[in-house]
Design brief:
This protein is an alpha/beta fold. The chain is built from five helices and nine strands; from the N terminus they run βββααβαβαββββα. The strands form three sheets. A five-stranded mixed sheet has the order 5-4-3-8-9. The longest helix has 13 residues, at 143-155.
Length: 156
């Protein structure tokens, strides 16, 4: 996925069993973020950062949508435990993660593995990617602030 690309229409099934499509968000901007594993420290920090700034992000016209390889039951528990009020897609087959280009090789503790690359896509009202935050750019504890800083600097 690159700047200017259209995100897929069928995004997946969320923690409540609801099918999520990009067309559900037409006319709205979208923060689509991928994270490696629910209930881990970095992923929890990132999700909580987005949740705590949700009102500001929504005021800027953005909806929030998360995606990981976790099963829907774990996504649901993650959302309930941390008070997350946005959809979390359970992409157990990694279909969406692969389409987005955020499934691949990564190095953790000197070990190479295949998994989810923490990535955030800002998508415009037409479903086109306008900005990509790469794994090296994302600071999980302040990720919402990073997005807001970009949004506000982009408008000036």
């Amino acid at each position: 996925m690159n700047i200017g690309d259209r995100i897929p229409d069928i995004l997946g099934i969320d923690q409540d069993g609801k099918e999520i499509k990009s067309s559900d968000y037409r006319g709205r901007k979208l923060i689509l973020y991928s994270y490696p594993k629910a209930n881990t420290p970095g992923c929890t920090a990132e999700a909580c950062s987005l949740q705590s700034h949700r009102a500001e992000l929504e005021a800027a016209g953005y909806a929030i949508l998360g995606v990981s390889k976790d099963k829907s039951a774990l996504q649901k528990k993650f959302a309930e435990t941390h008070g997350l009020t946005f959809p979390l897609i359970a992409d157990t087959e990694t279909t969406l993660l692969q389409q987005l280009g955020c499934w691949g090789e990564k190095v953790a503790c000197g070990r190479r593995t295949i998994g989810t690359l923490r990535t955030t896509y800002l998508v415009n009202e037409e479903g086109l990617v306008e900005k990509i935050f790469t794994p090296k750019e994302i600071k999980t504890k302040i990720h919402a602030e990073q997005i807001l800083k970009y949004i506000h600097s982009d408008k000036e």
